[in-house]
Design a protein that fits this description.
Elements lengths: L1 E6 L1 H13 L3 E7 L6 H5 L4 H7 L4 E3 L6 H10 L3 E5 L7 H4 L7 E4 L12
Parallel strand pairs: 1-2, 1-4, 2-3, 4-5
Length: 118
C-alpha cells in the first residue's frame, strides 16, 4: 500500500519507523515545524529527519490547509492516510481525495460520547 503520514514528535517518529520497516511504501510525510516549547522538546524525535534519511518527501506545515499540500497529496495517490499526534484539524478535502480504497487511520484514543455507537 502507498501511505501518506501526518505525524509529529516521538509518537509520529515511532509510527513512521514502523511504517518504514513494513512492506508498505511511504510516499509522503507531513509534519509540524520543530518547536522550542519545553513540553514539545521532551518528546522531540524528528519525523522530518527520519523521513529525509529514508528518502521520503517531507512537507512541514502548521496547518494542512493550503493548495500546495492538497496538490502533493493528489500526486502521492495514497491508499491510506495515517495520522499520529497531528495537532490540528485535517480538513475533509484531504480525506475526500479521489482514489480507490482510500481509508484513514488515526492513533488518537477517543472517548465515546452520547452520540457515539458503543
Amino acid at each position: 500500500m502507498r501511505v501518506v503520514m501526518f505525524g509529529y514528535q516521538t509518537w509520529g517518529h515511532r509510527t513512521l519507523q514502523a511504517l518504514l520497516a513494513s512492506e508498505h511504501e511511504v510516499a509522503l510525510v507531513v509534519t509540524h515545524p520543530a518547536s522550542d516549547h519545553p513540553y514539545e522538546r521532551i518528546w522531540s524525535d524528528s519525523v522530518a529527519d527520519l523521513a529525509t534519511e529514508h528518502g521520503v518527501e517531507v512537507l512541514i506545515r502548521d496547518r494542512p490547509d493550503d493548495p500546495e499540500l492538497l496538490d502533493r497529496l493528489k500526486q502521492a495517490d495514497p491508499d491510506v492516510i495515517v495520522a499520529t499526534n497531528w495537532r490540528t484539524w485535517i480538513p475533509p478535502e484531504i480525506f475526500e481525495l479521489p482514489g480507490s480504497a482510500r481509508s484513514t487511520c488515526t492513533t488518537h484514543c477517543c472517548r465515546p460520547t452520547a452520540a457515539s455507537p458503543r
